[in-house]
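Support request, please re-run this one:
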Amino acid sequence: GGTGAPRAPRRRPADPMVIEVDRLTKRFGPVTAVDDLSFTVRPGTVTGFLGPNGAGKTTTLRVLLGLEAPTSGTALIGGRRYQEFVRPLHQVGSLLDATALPAGRAAWFHLLALAQSNGIGERRVREVLELTGLESVAARRTGEFSLGMKQRLGIAAALLADPPVLLLDEPVNGLDPEGIRWIRLLLRAMAAEGRTIVVSSHLMSEMAQTADHLIVIGRGGLLADSSTAEFVSRTGQDVLVQSPGAAELAGLLTAAGAVVSPEGDGLAVTGTAADAIGDLAARHGIAVHQLITRHASLEEAYLDLTGASTDFRAASQVPGTPVGTAAR
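Re-run finished. Output below.
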């Protein structure tokens, strides 16, 4: 269980639900954790919820789940506050802290207690244990679990009632590569069924493969709300050129207004498309061995956008310099 592509859950969600955050502000004393934040999450996609440490991601999720009261504004799921759901697990599955478990309780009994509180039978407990690959350790106490096993148990709890909405905060933290691939396939399969899925993560490489849409916040405010492809494309692109006549070609490109810099034994060119570079080289009889258009990675686009919103930044350090002597 939990090793291949995930099986489809038991049913399709009856009522796809939209998450609506509208002018949400949350203050803790003098600290504004979330600042007039508005966004909408629609069914059928995996939405990545990104931002630096302290950006307000977890606070926003806690308000959505009724764990914090907003200072002002609203955070609704399916047009309702979380507190209004009679059996909330049937509407929203969530994972905020995988380590928040009763250490002396067996995994099976932990899930069974949650299930019975929401009118869910033992059969479904067995199903989610199998789905998450935990059936062989169901009798073990959760205090003996590794972080990765606790993450799987938290995901099992979120899936108990097969809900139309999933809110997951750092769900791949502590998972091995097989586990990361498993959760990616599971989330994409559930989104394809019309569910509303929000995943917060710092793993940009994983978000690039998992998320269709991105909401990026910084210092409590909205920085971006777009498809992943649009978000990455905004950071721009360059063209890697390999040519035996690189020096001559560089001069021609610079004269034509392109920005050229050496990279390895080739050139990195911005401001001119690959076809224009090829045409220019052909007109001057310069052989070109490679023309590769390169887009920014999600990580590069994210760091470019959030640089001004990062509260904790390591100093750039010259290799070999003792810690504490650099960047004074």
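The domain at 19-226 is CATH 3.40.50.300 (Rossmann fold). The first strand starts at residue 19 and ends at 28.
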